[in-house]
Amino acid sequence: MLTASIALALLAIALAWPVPLALSAASWPSRAPATALLLWQSIALAGGLSMIGALLTYGLIPFGDDLVGGLLGLAGVAAGDTVDRVSLLHVFALTGAVLLGGHLLLNLALTADRARRQRQRHRRLVDLLSSPVPDSPGSRMLDTAAPVAYCLPGTGRSLTVFSAGLVDLLSADELRAVIEHEKAHLDQRHHLVLLAFRAWNASLPWFPIASRARREVGLLVEMLADDRARRVVPDQTLATAIALVAGAGEQRPTAEPDDIVEQASPAEVTARVRRLLGGHRALPFPARGAVVAAAAGLLVVPTVLLLAPAVAGIGGLAL
Amino acid sequence: MATLGDLERSVMEILWTDGEKLSAYDLQTRLADAGSTKLAPTTVLTVLTRLENKGFVARDRSSRPHVFFAAASREDHMAELMHEVLGAASDREAVLARFVGQVSPDEAETLRRLLSGR
User: Fold this and answer.
1) What is the residue extent of each domain of chain A?
2) Most buried of A140, A177, A231, B38, CB within 10 angstroms?
3) How far is B66 from chain A (nearest CA, A)?
4) Complex-level ipTM
């Protein structure tokens, strides 16, 4: 178990620092946003699994020879058995595993619940202040001059919301591109991925990689939605729509100082427009396949490290 | 047939436009004047209670029958909504996904150059 514990710890360190850093610096994700998004999710999940797994396997060493045996041994101790060789370090590791796991799950639940309640509240305002759009179920138009478009995911009906100002600003094709972009967010349930990374960031606020990962994932889902929009309009039309809406936002006279702080990734809009104008070359299929295989591998390795000794043990018994 | 959401908006329009306190009966009459089919008084009360629960309508209980009025103006609600969409609410991104976020003047200039360069 000590070997498994050390291997898991090394994996956890790699996934917490060099691997995400390299991925966020790479240029290929904009050529295969869906694949890159898969890899980010795999890194986050495998990172958490190996971090908790390393602590757990180390802490269980005195109680058994593998994960299952260790847990059974620990249950035995709770029932009154005595075990020697338990050091303070093992107790710390076990406590750490439980606290870290609980902390991550609790943050996810809290973040999800807060988002749900805020969406409900916002939904009530939208219902009151917007009118349905003829021939476009699921779309609502706000009667305001500021050109905005967004989507509001919901448990029941999700909504695409845009303003009268946006209709004035954009041509019919550009408007179609915007609505298609927002529909893609809803269809592909991007809010769930964003929520998970947001919760991860909230549970590890001192961990710079978490906020970087959140920004990268945010940009990737925008690119994914852009890719859906460019199926119905030429790239140039979508790029124009993005630039027009961004430009109108910049001129907004009522910009508050707080809003400036909120521009988390200043180059995000430029990155999207450059990608559309620069002639899009999708990443070749073999390269994408390799990334998907790597993403799957990242999940398999910590699982095997956690369970393999137990499986081998059971196999040994069967023989 | 009008949905509850449509009715709620019609009621709010009347309360916002008139700016005075109205009883359920007054509202029933105005809604009929506005062209919708005449509603049962219980329906009007249901709509008003729903709006009250959502915080859009307030009720003056000192008079008989109770009179209802808009808790805030349409502009105030719109400002609140736009603040959530555009503004600094830190969890906004968890709530809704905007087509394009705020950009700095520098970035807006870069975008203009990119597009005119074609």
Assistant:
1) 2-252+264-280+305-318
2) A177
3) 23
4) 0.88
